[in-house]
Amino acid sequence: MTPEQMVYLVLAVAGAVGGAYWRFSTVLSAVKDELAAHKVHTAETYVTKAGMQEQTNALMRAIESIGSRIDSMSERLDRVFEAKPDRRAG
Q1: Who contacts 58 (Cβ-Cβ below 8 Å, separation ≥6)?
Q2: What is the pLDDT averaged over residues 47-67?
Q3: pTM score, two decimals?
Q4: DSSP characters for 33-81?
Q5: Which of 24, 5, 6 is nearest to 16 (CA)?
Q6: For the segment 13-56, what is each residue's pLDDT rounded down to a tens digit?
Q7: Integer angstrom CA distances of residue 11 from 3, 43, 64
Q8: Is 83 helix (H, G, I), strand (E, B) or coil?
Q9: CA 13, CA 33: separation in Å to the nearest integer?
Q10: What is the DSSP letter of 84?
Q11: For the chain, what are the domain ranges?
Q12: Number of DSSP helices (H) and strands (E) in the chain, helices first
């Protein structure tokens, strides 16, 4: 290969790499813009402040209900152990 052909080869490879980079960055930019638009659409459509507050209140009521059931269970267990009948071996 002559030096002139080497220069052409290097220029061709550099041009191909540069073109691929340019195309890739353009595609990434478009995808980034579409993702941002989708995030805004999702936030506006599916997640509202009132909906989040409603879900949070429902979860808090469920947690409080479970807590009260656990408290009543420990009280029942205390009564069971307090009311032990006195058995004598016979």
Answers
A1: none
A2: 90
A3: 0.41
A4: HHHHHHHHHHHHHT--HHHHHHHHHHHHHHHHHHHHHHHHHHHHHHHHH
A5: 24
A6: 999 999 999 999 999 999 999 999 999 998 888 877 888 899 99
A7: 12, 48, 71
A8: coil
A9: 30
A10: -
A11: 11-47, 48-82
A12: 2, 0
